[in-house]
Specification:
The chain has helices at residues 7-18, 25-44, 58-72, 87-96, 128-136, 177-180, 214-217, 227-230, 244-255, 267-276, 303-317, 334-339, 351-364, 381-386, 388-399, 436-449, 454-472, 480-502, and strands spanning 2-4, 49-54, 76-81, 99-101, 112-116, 142-146, 168-172, 190-194, 206-208, 232-236, 260-264, 281-282, 289-292, 322-325, 345-348, 402-405, 410-413, 421-424. It has 503 residues and is α/β, with parallel strands linked by helices. α9 links the parallel β10 and β11. The structure holds ligand NPW and adenosine-5'-diphosphate (ADP).
């Protein structure tokens, strides 16, 4: 598991450790690691010159000390700085023969650039005096951000398009939210963590499952299990308009290892599911979790659709865990929020659905106005994409449900105040295609039916979904059905990693 801590928690841990260490020891550790990484990258690109962008705080000091080390080791080194520079770092740089200048033209020859403009003490946004520095970084240079790319929000809230976009970020002891959360993760490049010995007492605020975590979480049957004990998933999906969603969700639930899948649909998707997934059984019945919504048309009024909708509403009124996806999200209203209080509910919107739902809930959930982040009426898709975590949290708070917000990075957050954010970035961009969300809903249904809580089920499902997409056709396009059919291979591969490690 990869964990990130808040900047406050990092400062607290730093203070506690510094009280036990000689002055400057902690920064020396950070500088040593940073200089080692930078030297390795200079060697890899056969570079001759390194440059530092030096801000006023300790982040600038890290970068300046590091280029002093590199100058001592024989590389040409320059440092671009503003008025305030850390005294000790300036002295070290001068002694090592680093060219100190305020002129960003000095960056022109740099093969590797260390961005030490701002670190975790930053307020989001690039300082005006640094804009010319960033503009002067050669396109060919390999940019290493020290702790985080300057201009980006350390807590990962919003991306600064004018800020630094690094090839690599070297951070200290532990990741911070900026490194793991959308939208700032995309500015960080490769993440390298240098251990400087911090001991974090606080709880992490961001969690990311790694491939090696899957074996401990994925529900693996024992000889004592049968189809019922493994978990039965009920899928209420598909209608006469969106027939394929039913096939995809049911297929994915079966391929993920559900003990049994019960399908409830209108005649056309029912016929398709019968033909495509002979393992599925038809009609409502006892289940351990429901998937409600892929391809569901809640506006349809014919008898078949009405009967299907009745099952959907009964599922939502019941006590079993529910994955509520796509068309099913249109069923969320104040009554539903009240009736599902305290029950496991996983909402799985994409950004557009999240925006619509937040906008709609403002009218019908009493007292819920605090999600209106923009303060400008309806929430838009673009706003959700610009700050996905804030909107996912707002939706979780408004509904009392766990929210899995889909996207290039999928975030999952529970409704409790201060709940950690799970952030998974396992999928190739090829996965963003119609039907892929229906597949994810099926996977999640199987995990909830096996007894996983909604947040870790969400993260685990997103990981496996992404790995299945990647392995189905590495580097190339992949259709949703193939992702669903690739889940058994992905799960076996991920479980096999544990077997390989323990042998
Ligand atoms: N913590 C650790 O464990 C360790 C930390 N280490 C290193 O220390 C770094 C943190 O250092 P730091 O606390 O000095 O903060 P940092 O970000 O360098 O600068 C803050 C300065 O910038 C200013 N400023 C802020 N935002 C601004 C803006 N948007 N536009 C303009 N100005 C802005 C701000 O001004 P003020 O808020 O005072 O107005 C203040 O002057 C950390 O990232 C890591 O590299 C390692 O050495 C060892 C272990
Ligand atoms: N750029 C991307 N990179 C990786 N995964 C993506 C990207 N865009 C979308 N996805 C994933 O593809 C799936 C699309 O789901 P969704 O939009 O609900 O599709 P549908 O409703 O058509 O099934 C989600 O799991 C989402 O996280």
């Amino acid at each position: 598991m990869i964990r990130a801590w808040s900047t406050d928690a990092v400062y607290d841990a730093e203070a506690a450790l510094m009280a036990t260490l000689p002055d400057g020891e902690l920064m020396a550790r950070a500088v040593e690691g940073l200089a080692l990484v930078a030297a390795a990258r200079l060697q890899e690109c056969d570079g001759a010159a390194v440059a530092a962008l030096v801000g006023p705080g300790n982040n600038g000091a890290d970068a300046l000390y590091a280029v002093a080390r590199l100058a001592e080791a024989g590389w040409n080194a320059v440092a671009v700085h503003d008025e305030v520079v850390h005294d000790g770092a300036r002295a070290a740089a001068e002694a090592a023969g680093v060219l100190l200048t305020t002129d960003p033209a000095a960056l022109a020859e740099a093969d590797v650039v260390l961005d030490g403009i701002l670190g975790i003490g930053a307020r989001p946004g690039l300082p005006p005096w640094a804009a010319a520095w960033v503009a002067a970084v050669p396109d060919t240079a390999y940019v290493i951000a020290v702790d985080l790319p300057s201009g980006q929000d350390p807590m990962g809230g919003a991306l600064d398009p004018d800020g630094v976009f690094a090839d690599e970020t070297v951070t200290f002891s532990v990741p911070k939210p900026v490194h793991l959360l959308p939208p700032t993760e995309q500015a960080c490049g490769i993440l390298t963590v240098v251990d400087i010995g911090l001991d974090l007492a606080a709880d992490p605020v961001v969690l990311r499952l790694d491939h090696d975590d899957v074996a401990a979480l994925w529900p693996v049957p024992t000889p004592a299990d049968d189809k019922y004990s493994r978990g039965v998933v009920g899928v209420v999906a598909g209608g006469e308009a969106y027939t394929g969603a039913a096939v995809l969700a049911v297929t994915a639930a079966v391929e993920s290892g559900a003990g049994m899948v019960r399908y409830v649909g209108t005649p056309t998707p029912t016929a398709l599911v019968r033909a495509a997934v002979p393992e599925a059984v038809h009609g409502p019945g006892r289940v351990q979790a429901w998937v409600v919504g892929p391809g569901l048309d809640v506006e349809a009024t014919d008898d078949d659709a009405a009967a299907q909708l009745e099952v959907a509403r009964a599922a939502l009124a019941g006590g079993e865990p529910v994955v509520l996806d796509a068309g099913g999200l249109d069923l969320v209203d104040a009554d539903l929020v009240r009736s599902r209080a305290g029950r496991a509910t996983l909402l799985t919107p994409h950004a557009g659905e999240c925006a619509r739902l937040l906008s709609r809930l403002s009218a019908v959930v009493p007292g819920v106005t605090y999600w209106s982040i923009s303060g400008q009426g309806d929430v838009t898709r673009a706003q959700v994409e610009a700050s996905p975590v804030a909107h996912a949290k707002a939706l979780a708070a408004a509904t009392g449900a766990t929210v899995l917000l889909k996207g290039p990075t999928t975030v999952v957050v529970g409704p409790a105040e201060g709940a950690p954010v799970w952030s998974q970035a396992d999928a190739p961009a090829w996965l963003g295609s119609a039907g892929a969300g229906d597949v994810l809903a099926g996977v999640l249904g199987t995990l909830l039916a096996a007894g996983l809580p909604p947040d870790s089920a969400g993260a685990l499902g997103a990981l496996v979904h992404g790995v299945a997409a990647d392995r189905a056709n590495p580097g190339g396009p992949v259709r949703a059905l193939r992702v669903a059919n690739g889940i058994p291979d992905a799960v076996a591969h991920l479980l096999g990693r544990a077997a390989t490690r323990s042998s």
